[in-house]
Write a structure and sequence with these properties.
This protein is of the alpha/beta class. Helices cover 63% and strands 11% of the residues. Strands 3-2-1-4-5 form a 5-stranded mixed β-sheet, with helices on both faces. Helix 1 packs antiparallel against helix 6.
Length: 305
């Protein structure tokens, strides 16, 4: 019985130590969410004005640019998947991977080949384990991305869409990331970045009829598009990285809170079992003492006779 009590005590100590770790991780993730949200908010004005400028150039001229002109029969698409570098975030990375798989199936059904680009060790490990081809990958910054990271990611993607498909280029560029809605809600979403759907972007941002008179294009609309559209892709990727980082921290905070609560429940359950084992041990010891005393009393009574 004493051995069983020691087992319970060791398990309680182990779970208590784990609870302290998960509680600390929960608090760290909660503090990082606020910083990530601030970065998302700070990035929005630049992204909005850049979108307005690109829309103005594309709608205010007859220029056909490879980044705004859809292919007649697209045959290849690039998909950028954003996952995390670290685990302990619930279904954060797996949900993004599932969204990428659904997008891949949809593009394949349309007759398009898919080139995959991945951010985050979890996505890289998933594709590596299944021996799937990944064109390029980036790791080490998912929980705190910088604009330089977005530029690094955007460069090969822009280069690929500017190439002819016969030379290994792509006709479309899609992105899959986790959108931060609130502390409790994060949704894995996908969207097409290029070619830019001007009518849709203009409608969403209210720019088609509002800002055309505000811009003059020098030296030409095509040169302006050459300069603006790479910045547009970088800003879209940067905003997605920031939202993904905020979503990752929120998912990790929720997962660690659940782990902390479960550890507390397990400690209570183990404590009850330990108390029951201790009570049984005490009862057994009392019974042995009473039995021994009774045996001594009987032995003394027999010797008196």
């Amino acid at each position: 019985m004493g051995a069983q009590l020691r087992v319970y005590k060791r398990r309680i100590q182990a779970v208590t130590a784990t609870k302290k770790i998960t509680k600390a991780m929960e608090m760290i993730a909660a503090s990082r969410i606020v910083k990530a949200q601030r970065k998302v908010t700070a990035s929005m004005p630049y992204a909005t004005e850049l979108t307005r400028a690109v829309t103005a150039v594309a709608t205010g001229s007859n220029t056909k640019h490879p980044l705004t002109t859809e292919a007649d029969a697209p045959v290849r698409a690039a998909v950028l998947l954003l996952t995390s570098d670290r685990g302990l975030a619930g279904g954060y990375s797996s949900n993004a991977i599932k969204a990428a798989e659904r997008l891949r199936e949809r593009l394949a059904a349309e007759g398009k080949e898919v080139d995959t680009y991945i951010v985050g060790r979890k996505g890289v490990a998933y594709y590596g384990f299944r021996e799937r081809k990944v064109v390029e990958s980036w790791t080490g910054f998912t929980d705190s991305p910088e604009y330089a990271d977005a530029k690094k990611i955007a460069a090969p993607l822009i280069e690929s869409i500017q190439k002819d498909t016969a030379e290994g280029g792509v006709d479309e560029l899609h992105i899959v990331f986790t959108e931060f809605v609130s502390m409790m809600t994060q949704n894995a979403v996908d969207g097409r970045m290029l070619p830019l759907s001007i009518d849709q972007v203009a409608e969403e941002n209210g720019t088609k009829d509002e800002i055309l008179p505000l811009f003059d294009f020098e030296p030409s609309a095509e040169d302006v598009l050459d300069a603006l559209l790479p910045r547009y892709v970088e800003s879209r990727i940067y905003n997605a990285l920031l939202q993904a980082a905020a979503s990752e921290h929120a998912a990790r905070r929720r997962a660690m809170k659940s782990a902390t609560d479960n550890a507390g429940d397990l400690i209570k359950s183990l404590s009850r079992l330990a108390n029951a084992a201790r009570q049984a041990e005490i009862t057994q010891e009392i019974s042995e003492i009473v039995g021994g005393a009774g045996a001594l009393a009987d032995a003394s009574a027999g010797s008196d006779k």
